[in-house]
């Protein structure tokens, strides 16, 4: 089971034209046996919802789309989901937009109509990078324990990455500590030493930043729904933390 998860690279395709989207999904899955297309969206807003639910490894997106275009989607991914790799598949007329996207860590641009050879080349490159990152991360975790590690600064970086990937879930200091095979007190001690803030504060910042984004861009969501999407199941606790961090209640900030 573990091997299967490590080998599977999860992809979301974002394209507003049905025929192109469906064709791209089929071609991606046929080209690479290690790839699983877990979702397809017709605009950036729908894609962000899928990202939050399913945490993909890779996004293949068009630029010009209704509701939320590909450039805004890429900006959001770079800010809130930095580990997700991004590929643009768009027409020649959108090349200026694609160049702008490069500042948000987009490394690959596919020109429509996308050739099979170019699609396979770009996918293979990204899959290799994703699998290498996973292997490196697992290698780091294998040696982690508080008696033998020689570089606590690296451990802190891994803890930060883990929180960035999981902050939308219900997550406590004890759960994080168990994941890394530490005591909660030791985890707090090294985290504060190298970041000057406790892990609970960093986690809170991630969540409130995401909440501010949701309140600004998705005004149809209730305060309860926003809280749940950033890991706070108790609406009143979420509102209290939000005001503590921003000086506003979620309702006030939404206005």
Describe the structure.
By secondary structure, the chain is of the alpha/beta class. The N terminus is likely disordered. Helix 2 links the parallel strand 1 and strand 2. Helix 3 runs parallel beside helix 4, helix 7 packs across helix 9 and helix 11 crosses helix 12. Helices cover about 60% and strands about 10% of the residues. It has a 5-stranded parallel β-sheet, sandwiched between helices. About 25% of the residues are buried.
Helix content: 55-70%
What is the rounded Rg? 20 Å
Figure out the total of helices: 13
SSE string: HEHEHEHEHEHHHHHHHH
Strand content range = 5-15%
- Taking strands numbered 1, 2, ... along the chain, how are they ordered across the largest sheet? 2-1-3-4-5
- General form: globular
Quick one: biggest sheet?
5 strands, parallel
Distance between the termini: 47 Å
Low-confidence stretches: 1-6, 145-149
Q: What class would the helix/strand composition place it in? A: alpha/beta
Record field, number of beta strands: 5
Calculate the mean pLDDT score and round it: 85
